[in-house]
Amino acid sequence: MNRKLFPEALLVMDYGTVEAQFDSHRLERLQSMVQLGTPVSTDSLDDPAVAGRLAEIEILITSWGVPLLDEARLAQLPKLRAVFHCAGSVRPFVSDALWDRGIVVSNGADANAVPVAEFTLATIILAGKRAQVLANDARNHRGSNSYGQLRGELGNLGRTVGVVGYSKIGRRVVELLQMLEDVRVFVADPYADPVKVSAAGATLIPLDELIPSVDILSLHAPELPSTRHMIGAVELAALADNATLINTARGSLIDTAALEEACRDGRITAILDVTDPEPLNADSILYDLPNVVLTPHIAGSLGTETRRMSDMALNDLAHYLNGEPLDAQVHAHDMNLSA
Fold first, then answer.
1. DSSP-derived pairing of the beta strands 104-107 and 329-330
2. Catalytic residue flag (residue 278)
3. Strands (DSSP E) found in the chain
4. Tens-digit pLDDT profile for residues 325-337
5. SS3 48
6. pLDDT at 1 exceeding the cut of 80
7. Which of 20, 19, 29 is nearest to 305 (CA)?
8. C-alpha–C-alpha distance, residues 275 and 295, integer Å
9. Strand, coil or helix: what is 218?
């Protein structure tokens, strides 16, 4: 095929992300499907080095660092037909103007769901043994193992796990939990199909019924105005004694001030990979509480794991160029759902 007929493409992402997500093999695959000019990538659409190329660009390959593609940006990209995103949510860059132009959007978030779900499963299993907080307690019980029962009953047999948000990640978590013996799984999500949830091995119930029923509560809802602080003082008070709250989704799902108060007396455990704000203010009491575990937003794709999302984007690019249905196309109405 005459390469002049290949669509012009540009990678738009942080430069470190390009190196991490597009090794020589993946870059060669991309080059076999599109024309890549010079420079191949940019971390800013305002870069003078790419200004002369924007009018001819038909395909954007994006990741972390892509700006909002609003009307003004799209005016610079009159031939843009499709965006293939190699990261998590597309929410930071999509706009009404993009949907109005009929630009195709594909998202590699399904691949990003894999490490988050794996991290969540591992966290749930460890939480069943109170491993994370007992590791913190060890500092105050040197030379003794007598503190092993101070955090309530230990073990994963017969646990009840609540999954909030039947998203791509939430669905994977429910699937992975099936490997555990005698574990009940409840799901809360206003958009979920109860038949599909049941087929996956869980039961769909309202959030206010789920919260007091679970030993472990894992959050996987999207960041929307309707989900901001969905876990507040009332919900935290409803958690059972020694329950564990896990957040690998978005920090804003939890009211941080309410969580600080709820965790002061050690009644519940919080394991937070995301916070609001992120990072937490330096004076937050959550840093000092042994029943709180903080990790620096590591559940999602890191390092070589990010290449799963590149592969998904490249697969969908191939489908698109062949006139085939995409595996991971995103539509405007998806922005109001948890998918």
1. antiparallel
2. yes
3. 8-12, 35-42, 59-62, 82-85, 104-107, 160-164, 184-188, 203-204, 216-219, 244-247, 269-272, 292-294, 329-330
4. 999 999 998 876 4
5. helix
6. no
7. 20
8. 10
9. strand
Query: Which of 28, 71, 153, 278 is flagged as catalytic?
Result: 278
181 is catalytic: no
Q: Is 250 a known active-site residue?
A: yes
Instruction: Spell out where 79-144 has E strands.
Output: 82-85, 104-107
Query: Would you mind telling me the total number of residues written for the chain in this entry?
Result: 339
pLDDT band per the 50, 70, 90 thresholds, residue 151: confident
Which residue in the list 85, 172, 220, 250 is annotated as catalytic?
250
CB 145 within 8 A of CB 171: no
pTM of the shown model: 0.83
pLDDT, tens digit, 9 for 90 and up, residues 210-238: 999 999 999 999 999 999 999 999 999 99
* Paired residues of 109 in beta bridges: none
State the average pLDDT for the chain.
94
